[in-house]
Amino acid sequence: MHDMLRSLPQARGAGRYISLAAAEENGLTGLHAAPRSVRILVENVLRAAVKSRDEAAVGRAMASSAALISACAGAGPEEEITFSPTRLILQDHTGIPVLSDLASLRSLIAERGLDPRRARPALPVDIVVDHSVEVNAWARPGALALNMSREYELNRERYRFLRWAQREMSGLRVVPPGRGIVHQMNLEHLARVVMPDADGLLAPDFVLGTDSHTPMVGALGVLGWGVGGIEAETALLGHSVSLLSPPVVGVRLTGELPVGSTATDLALTMTRFLRDTGVVGQFVEFFGPGVPTLSVPDRATVSNMAPEYGCTVAFFPVDEATLDYLRLTGRPEQDVSVVEAYAKEQGLFVPLGSAEEPLCARTVEFDLSSVEPSVAGPRRPQERLPLAAVPGSFPDGPRSGGDHADEGPADGAVGIAAITSCTNTSNPESMVIAGLVARNAVERGLSVPPWVKTTLAPGSRAVPRYLEAAGLLPYLQKLGFDVAGFGCTTCIGNSGGLAPAAEEAVRREGTRLAAVLSGNRNFEGRIHPDVAAAYLASPALVVAYALAGSVRTDLSSEPLGTGTDGRGVRLADLWPTPAQIATAVAHVAREHFAVEKEALFQGGSEWQDLSFPEGPVYDWPADSTYLVRSPFFDPTGRTGTADLRGARVLVFAGDSTTTDHISPAGTIAEDSPAGRHLAGTGIARADYNSYGCRRANHEVLVRGAFANPGFRNKLTPSQGGSRTLHVPSGEVMSVYDAASRYFAERTPVVILAGRDYGFGSSRDWAAKGPALLGVRAVLAESFERIHRSNLVGMGIVPLQFPPGRGPKELGLTGRETFEITGLETLRPRGEVTVRALGPGGQLVGAWRMLARVDTARELDYVRQGGFLRAVAAPLLAPSPPAGEPARQGAS
């Protein structure tokens, strides 16, 4: 067989790589026409085989790659792919539970008298602390310092744990609090595009991340997607990961964005377009003459929204713009040269003016010139609206307050106007347009009404640097957009309190408020409990709505306010010209990014002064309410795929149930099961923190399952949040209490659901919580990709109704008992039989369901009670795990 190992002549130093051209010369036909995202997958498969030095393995990899190319083009059956990412990236809400599981496993190994360092990262891992800062102070110069001080006060114990992990787990790097948002850090600093693998071979940067917006890095030509923490632990511990070959949807971009439309408008329009196209679980690759008109930050704004349009990957191949961005953000020139040489040698580079079109399963066309100023809302990212349609979109309800914003906060008043999230603050042009609108507004004498909470929380410290250099930051500050933090803040619900005028309007008048944010998620109940509707918008439109004070103002035609000359000022009066935008963007310079690289992993004095334990085993403070040893490695826990009889429905969920609904990240209510548990441990109400920050304490999180106030259980439709019906007794109680009672009665429980179950964030606690509640299966019309994988990883079987035969069509109420047979003899993507019985045992219905246990490896995990129990077994064995010594260490 032809040798596929070649050397990169343009690279100084190590430059050996697996040549895709050699693979094609050896008979791997069709590779030159495959989408570039697929070529990266093929390289991964071939590299693993070549490194094995097994000629038979290489032959199998060639055959598997050929099948993969065919399947991704829609010309062959689905192919199970086994691959290994080059690195992992985590954020603190999802990453600390991953590391806590690893630390728990170390403790268990040590108790067996074995070396706890057996459990350590097998590949490079970065964790960015960005999800814990809350906006308690705003619209003041000291807001950033005050919010960071409070963040450390609440999260000192979690950060102590991270400092220990950073020291004791080789291969782990931590970006401390206050540096930026994970995906923007990935784009600006961490992603390498081409990097050495564990054995020194050059390879495409291929990243998995414990956040659903990981595909944002696809804007750089980096293959990456979001996974749950359970799947991340698979790769972290040196195990390969598998998935079924995804069809690739090619999006041919034509034209260019018109004047007045931003990358955010494109991203929101693309989200609606691709949701309508149908790309759930597929790869999306952009190509065509419109691509060169988009900067890398523009592409990142689009690819960041991948989970909102439902695909696994949103990918832009490497081109000249990629190389320019790497230089702008401070990457060493030698690294850029290697990226250019490798991408060109491997056929991953797209030359300017290329008319090449990849062979995809489907190709759709999108005209960039059709994009108009837009927002998305009031409840879902795909609900794109032109500006004129926004006033009429605010949800109907009892009206309160006046009809006009100048009479005080009325229904539709903007309670929160937040420039935040990696989606838009990663885009210098979008940020300077917001600064220019602010400058023009201040110069016209406009101001923000007192009920609007205005916040600026960029994803990178480069942002205020270039805004300052352009002379725009003072104008944003004049309108209350002082830097309040460098983290996700409002986008994940860490909004803090409202302005006093807004809080009073809610409490006294029942005013129904709106939020406008430059983020990527606006699910019901996510942004703030007192916000009735939330809209996603560009940073400039966030400023505009803050000035208007109400989403009932039509920004396309109505004044935002009255200027000092007594005349109404419209958005069109404030919008900068293309020349003004270009002048401001010209201030964005390499030094604004490069200076951050030196301090990225160091942190400030608060981080450096944290004391932490030494040694390979964490000390697990007995009084901790944040970090508790994981229960998921317990060998006595439930395992296997036994058939179910007499099962009850614990929760009956509707369509588009999000992972926010299942496992909220935000505020812990005082009267919730989790709140009562914390009160019982002596924690003051002010120190409850959030569910997201307590994800390494299963006692809190299991009690928080389905606790989102916006969630509606069809068993208790008049009550929001964690309430359900214990069917045998007819009593309404918390989901946690009902699960406890069913457990005592030895009654298995399942979840019944509609379409798109598990939509949204990648959080593994949306599967871990139900697993601890005893849920054995989820019966849904369809599943979102990451959540399905998380369910399998926790040993829960996802069962999918046949098309057109969901709970409504079958007449199910959730009060039936269920029998599920065929689990004991299940095969990957096999079927089971479900029977629903009425109160007297009479048959209500019987039907077949598809078990979404997609691969043989997943089936093995389910049979062992989940991945964590499966992986613990060899590590707890008296001798080192057989066959994997090289994968049990850091790269």
The strand line-up of the biggest sheet is 24-27-28-29-32-31-30
By oligomeric state, this entry counts as single chain
Overall pLDDT confidence:
92
Reported for the largest beta sheet, the result is: 7 strands, mixed, barrel
Ends: how far apart? Answer: 29 Å
Task: Quickly give the structural class.
Answer: alpha/beta
Ranges where pLDDT stays below 50 over 5 or more residues in a row are 399-405, 882-891
Sum up the structure in keywords.
alpha/beta; globular; 32 strands; five-stranded parallel sheet; 891 residues; 30 helices; 33% helix
What would you note in describing this structure?
The chain is of the alpha/beta class. Helix content is 33%, strand content 16%. The chain has 30 helices and 32 strands. A 7-stranded mixed beta barrel has the order 24-27-28-29-32-31-30. Helix 2 packs antiparallel against helix 3 (55-72). The radius of gyration is 26 Å and the shape is globular. The relative contact order is 0.11.
